[in-house]
Amino acid sequence: MSDDSFFREVDEELRSERVQNFWDKYKAFVIGGAIAIVVGTGGYRFYETYTANQAARAGDQFMEAVRRAENNDVDQALVDLGKIAEEGSPAYQALARMRLAAELGKQGKWQEAVEAYDAVAALSSADQNLRSIARLRAAALLVDEGTVTEVEARVAPLTGPGAPYRASAREYLALAYYRAGDLEQSAKIFNEIRADSGTPRTLSNRVTLMLELIASQGGPAFTEAPAQAAPAPATETTPTQ
Fold first, then answer.
1. What is the pLDDT of residues 113-154, one digit of tens each?
2. Looking at the domain that runs over 20-126, which CATH code has it been given?
3. Domains of the chain by residue range
4. Which end of the chain, N or C, is less packed with Cβ atoms under 10 Å?
C-alpha cells in the first residue's frame, strides 16, 4: 500500500468517526428539528385549509342573510347579519355591518344604522374604500336626522385634496348646512364644489340646481361658473343609502 493510500484511508476513518461522534451528540436536535419542520408545515397547511373553510362558511352565511332580507324576512336577516358582524371573518364582519346598517336605515332606525356605519368606519381590518363609503352613508342619514356637527364629523376625513369621495363628502356637508337654514355657508360649499375641476359632471349639475334653489330662497345670488371651472367627466359615484 502506498503512503497516499494509507493516509487517504486514515483520513476517511477520521471523518467517519467525526460524523459518528457528531450524530451521537446532536442526533436528538437533528431529529427534533426535522419533526418541527414537518409539524410546522403541516400546521400551516391545516391553518390555510381551516381559514379557507371558515371564509367559505362566512360567505354562505352572509349570502343567506342577504337572501332573507330580499325575501322580506328582515327580522331573521338582522339577527343573522348581527351574528356575522360579531363572529364572522374580518372581511365579512365589515360587509355584514354595512348590510345591517342599510336594512336598519330602511326601517327608519337611523340611529342604529349610523352606529353600524360608524362601526365599519372604525374597523381597522376593513378595506379603506369600504370605510370611506360607510362614513358617507352615515353622513347621508344624518343630513336629514342629525346636525351639521355630526355630518362634519363623518365627512371631514374625506374632504382633503385628492380624496376619492371628496366631492360627495362636501355635498353632504353643504346639504346639512342647507337643512339647518344656513344658506350662506351652504352656498359657499356648493360653489367650492362647482369650482373644483375634479367634480363629476352629474354632481356639478346637482350643485347648480341647489345654488339656484338657495338663491330663490333669499340666499346668495346664483352666478354662472367661470369657464376654467368646468366640471370633469363623471368619475365618482355617490354611494346610495
1. 999 999 999 988 888 899 999 999 999 999 988 999 999 999
2. 1.25.40
3. 20-126, 149-241
4. N
